[in-house]
Amino acid sequence: MSGGAQPAPRRGARSHQTRTSSRLRSWLRHHRAMCLDSARRLLRHPLGSLLTMLAIAIALVLPAALWLVLDSARLLDAELDESATLTAYLEAGVDEAQAMRINEALGAHPEVDATRLITAAEGMAEFQDSLGLADALGRLEDNPLPASVVVSPRETRPDAVRALADQLETVSGVDEVRLDLAWIERLAQLAELGRRVALALAVLFGLGVLLIVGNTIRLAVESRRQEIQVVTLIGATHAFVRRPFLYSGAWYGLGGGLLAWALLSLGGQWLAAPVTALAESYGAHFSLPRLDAMGSAILLFSSTLLGLLGAWIAVSRHLAEMRPE
């Protein structure tokens, strides 16, 4: 049995771990206490808190509603893109067998998604049905309409469609390729305008939320000026003083986001019936878009973050200007 000295326990490392764990628990307890205390302070003045949250909600509703409309417009764009077609008119002397071969040649083009052959007889029948002149047109000795091929392009961008039309006109037997890009270009311009307006409104009303929360927190800081000066004199850091006001700003933002979500839901239900009736009168099926789970989470997260940021700016500025008396 050895008589050597036993190693001493590492008390320094264990003591350091204990202090770190104690500080972490104290930090978490203070955060929990400030979160609950800020909520109780808002509940003590329910009318004023509700008006502030309502002002935040109104500032959030318009950009959120425009975002929903643009999201619905993107779905409409996809449906309209599927309907974008070109019409290749064949030469007058092309018979039905040659028209089928030309249709196969056009369908084999790498930029073509699908083709549909309309013979001269089918074209005349559709023309008669659309105009209601079956008797008058039936007296014609020869069919003046050429066969045609309806082409669905893979890419619906205006420049790509133009390039495809130029390539199809070089195919033997094709007399002319017609396309109408005006509505596609107008739709793209309207979508880009909507995106820029939505971004501008989001920034503008986001600044409005910052001002609303900042002004509310500024008044709260002024009402507790003496308390802040006392805790600062006894060694409280700016982070310690700032914490309850940050939670207040977060509560304001979260409440405003919830009210905005409620206003959007109620407004959508209120307008759903007349919008559906208007769409059905034009033979279309359209329903107002609604916030899904992801959209609701984004709305609430953005409102809470704006409230937190507004409170942080207001408190930091006042703490920098505040001097103990």
Topology:
Elements: H1 11-44, H2 46-82, E1 86-90, H3 96-107, E2 112-118, H4 120-131, H5 134-138, E3 148-153, H6 158-168, E4 174-178, H7 182-223, H8 225-233, H9 238-281, H10 293-321
Antiparallel strand pairs: 1-3, 1-4, 2-3
Short description:
The chain is an alpha+beta fold and 325 residues long. 72% of the residues lie in helices and 7% in strands. Strands 2-3-1-4 form a four-stranded antiparallel β-sheet.
Q: Which value, in Å, is the CA radius of gyration? A: 35 Å
Summarize model confidence as the mean pLDDT.
Answer: 78
Overall morphology: elongated
Instruction: Write down how many β-strands occur, each being a DSSP E stretch of 2 or more residues.
Output: 4
Low-pLDDT stretches are 1-5
Series of H and E elements: HHEHEHHEHEHHHH
Q: Tally the helices.
A: 10
Strand order of the largest sheet: 2-3-1-4
Main beta-sheet strand count, sense and barrel state: 4 strands, antiparallel
What percent strand? 5-15%
Helix content: over 70%
Structural class: alpha+beta
In whole angstroms, the N-to-C terminal distance is: 71 Å
